[in-house]
Write a structure and sequence with these properties.
- One of its GO terms (biological process) is urea catabolic process.
- GO terms for molecular function: urease activity.
- InterPro entries: Urease_beta-like (IPR002019), Urease_betasu_sf (IPR036461), Urease_subunit (IPR050069).
- This protein is mostly beta strands and about 120 residues long.
- The chain has one domain: Urease, beta subunit (Urease, subunit B, Ribbon), CATH 2.10.150.
- It has a 4-stranded antiparallel β-sheet with strand order 3-1-6-4, with no helix packed on it. The protein has a two-stranded antiparallel ribbon with strand order 2-5. The protein has a two-stranded antiparallel sheet with strand order 7-8.
- Strand 7 and strand 8 form a beta hairpin.
- The radius of gyration is 16 Å and the shape is globular.
């Protein structure tokens, strides 16, 4: 046993069971690497990431908590997104939502378009 190690179950723990999963192709059009954490509202990630941004609204990466995905300049990679649980209230990130995902959607899409986020087709 490793100090601090937990044995929660003999069976593997599977996250995000019963939640919808969406796959999107993401390209880093910038000149620097971009790293995105597991619970970042993907709709609000760096403007230089190009992907169908509308599909990512209300979603975060489908990866273990506390981990991240790194997008190197010019690289394209396929990722999985899953919906936020709970009350679906998001604050921070790029400041596009700052409230209820349901109530702020139109406003967030407008802000993202005005601020030059890539991948919007509105």
């Amino acid at each position: 046993m490793i100090p601090g190690e937990y044995f929660l179950s003999d069976k593997p723990i599977i996250a995000n069971v019963g939640k919808s999963i969406t796959s999107v192709s993401v390209k880093n059009t910038g000149d620097r690497p971009i790293q995105v954490g597991s619970h970042t509202h993907f709709f609000e990630v760096n403007k230089a990431l190009e992907f169908p941004r509308e599909k990512s609204y209300g979603c975060h990466l489908n990866i273990p908590s506390g981990t991240s995905v790194r997008f190197e300049p010019g690289d394209t990679r396929e990722i999985e997104l899953t919906e936020f649980g709970g009350e679906k209230i998001v604050y921070g990130f790029s400041g596009l939502v700052n409230g209820s995902l349901e109530e702020k959607q139109n406003e967030a899409f407008k802000k993202a378009t005005e601020q030059g986020f890539k991948g919007l087709t509105l």
